[in-house]
Each structure stands twice: as C-alpha cells, then as structure tokens.
Automatic annotation (TrEMBL):
<dbReference type="GO" id="GO:0046872">
    <property type="term" value="F:metal ion binding"/>
</dbReference>
<keyword id="KW-0411">Iron-sulfur</keyword>
<feature type="domain" description="4Fe-4S">
    <location>
        <begin position="109"/>
        <end position="168"/>
    </location>
</feature>
<keyword id="KW-0479">Metal-binding</keyword>
<dbReference type="InterPro" id="IPR007202">
    <property type="entry name" value="4Fe-4S_dom"/>
</dbReference>
<dbReference type="GO" id="GO:0051539">
    <property type="term" value="F:4 iron, 4 sulfur cluster binding"/>
</dbReference>
<keyword id="KW-0004">4Fe-4S</keyword>
<protein>
    <submittedName>
        <fullName>ArsR family metal-binding transcriptional regulator</fullName>
    </submittedName>
</protein>
<dbReference type="Pfam" id="PF04060">
    <property type="entry name" value="FeS"/>
</dbReference>
<dbReference type="InterPro" id="IPR051069">
    <property type="entry name" value="ACDS_complex_subunit"/>
</dbReference>
<keyword id="KW-0408">Iron</keyword>
Length: 172
C-alpha cells in the first residue's frame, strides 16, 4: 500500500460557509510524485506542479491535496471528515496501482466553463431540475451546487452520448 494513513489534524468551522466545517489532515508520506497522475485522472482538478498542490470539487466540497496534507472545506460534520480521509487514501492508492497505464499530466488544465457544460445538456429549459434554464443548471453544476443526476432530461435515450461526455468532463 502506497499511502498507509491520512490523519486529521484539526476540524473547525468553515470560513466559506458558516453552516459547514473544514478540516486539515496529514498524509503518512509525501505524495508529490502521485499528484500529476491524479491530475490526469481527475478531469476537473486544478493542478499547480511548482506549488505541488491539486484542487477539485466533489459536490459542494472543495478538496486540496498538497505533497504532505489534505484540506477540505464545506464538510457536513466530523464523520464526513473521516470518510473523506478514507476516500482520498483509497483514491491515491488506486492511482498509484494504475500509474503504469496513466500518462501523468504536469500542466494546469483549463477549468471547464459554463458553456462547455451547457453544450452537453439537452437545452430544453424544461425546469425539471429545479432551475429555470439549462444555462442556470450548468452554472450550478460546475461549482458543485447541483449533481448531473438532477437533470432528468439527459437520462432519456435521445441524449445518450451527452451524459457520458458530461460525466467525463465533470469526472463523475
């Protein structure tokens, strides 16, 4: 196993959202060699090779991995923090196992725009997701306020390939 432990250092109220919490955890080893592989696999990640950090969203959570630490904002509670530590540990270990078949990506990826997301949506403005337009849905999807599953129209057969492409862009 590449990474044995992810140990919580602190959990405190979140500065980005008063109703949420944030935490910081330490990795049992330096993971800087794995960051470019994670960058290649997590399509929505923002990676800075020189600073040795990678940031991505999972739902509303903002996750930042550096060479020695994990920081996560907008968690619900302490249990969520420990579950996230396990998730990140498993993700890093899985990527490490598959690193021979992954081409590492050292460059910072351009974050998908609202229009990049919108072009894969049905463009029906059906409001079944709770938003007034598909553009509004795309803007909330990109920041993690909504999930792709909430667009009911995209799951219909006539939009088959679009759902797969959208999931690929959003890494879900």
């Amino acid at each position: 196993m590449y990474l044995e432990e992810v140990n919580v250092i602190f959990i405190e109220p979140c500065t980005a959202d008063a109703n949420k919490m944030r935490f910081k955890a330490a990795f049992s080893r330096n993971i800087s060699e794995i960051l470019p592989y994670l960058n290649a696999e997590i399509k929505i990640a923002q990676y800075n090779h020189r600073a040795e950090n990678l940031t991505f969203n999972q739902g509303i959570k903002i996750i930042t991995l550096s060479s020695e630490t994990l920081s996560v904002a907008k968690i619900i509670n302490e249990t969520d923090a420990y579950e996230m530590c396990d998730y990140i540990k498993n993700l890093i270990n899985d990527i490490y196992k598959k690193r021979d078949v992954i081409v590492p990506l050292f460059e910072m990826r351009k974050k998908p725009s609202v229009l990049d997301i919108y072009k894969y949506l049905p463009k029906t403005n059906c409001k079944r997701c709770g938003e007034s337009t598909c553009v509004a849905f795309a803007s909330k999807l990109i920041v993690g306020e909504l999930q792709v599953q909430q667009c009911r129209s995209i799951h219909e057969n006539k939009h088959d390939g679009k759902l797969d492409e959208l999931k690929k862009i959003l890494n879900c």
